[in-house]
């Protein structure tokens, strides 16, 4: 024991301590290398899913190890069709179809164009509306209105000397002037009608009765079909209104009701 005590008090203690430190350092280096090796294996397994199945059995096999960068690069590598293919068959405008601004500028596309025409060419294809179509109704003469339709208002009759309603319109017209049919229809009367004198009555397609009094030299007879504007005769005299200036009298009736001829002809 005395020898051991002397040894520890001398250089022996330093040697033992140095040996212990070396052993501890060696153990620490070995432990660090071992841990580093395991960490390297795990890191390699994360980078390579195939090797992780062999070298890292503790890692969940269902873990998706694909990085966002890899997904984005896969998606953007899909081929795309050129945008020009979608408009490959659109015909190009030809400069030969443009109007020159002169007299021949509206002639349309040239014979070699792909069916492209100028607006003027399209407009000329539609047939113009016929300007000769017969009017729905017309005034029997062109003179001014002497006496208008009065409706329920009483007016004075110079010829009869009393107050009564005026159920039609009196148009001023010179004797012998041509009288026209105010509407198309069937002639139901062509001759004398009591105090109204020579009268022509026409029933139109709507069932209205047009009566024109003061018509002489009749050109139609009952049963005839006439068109608006067709000649019925000439201006004569209205017996019950003979005190007025020369005129013809026009009435329009719907059943037993008198209508204002001016409104009907609008």
Automatic annotation (TrEMBL):
Residues 44-139 are annotated as: Disordered. The keyword Signal applies. Pfam families: Peptidase_M23. Residues 165-261 form the M23ase beta-sheet core domain. Residues 126-137 have a biased composition (Low complexity). Residues 61-74 have a biased composition (Acidic residues). Residues 1-31 form the signal peptide. InterPro entries: Cell_wall_metabolism_enzyme, Dup_hybrid_motif, M23ase_b-sheet_dom. Keywords: Signal. The keyword Signal applies. GO terms for molecular function: metalloendopeptidase activity. PANTHER family: L-ALA--D-GLU ENDOPEPTIDASE, PEPTIDASE-RELATED. This is M23 family peptidase. It comes from Faecalibacterium prausnitzii.
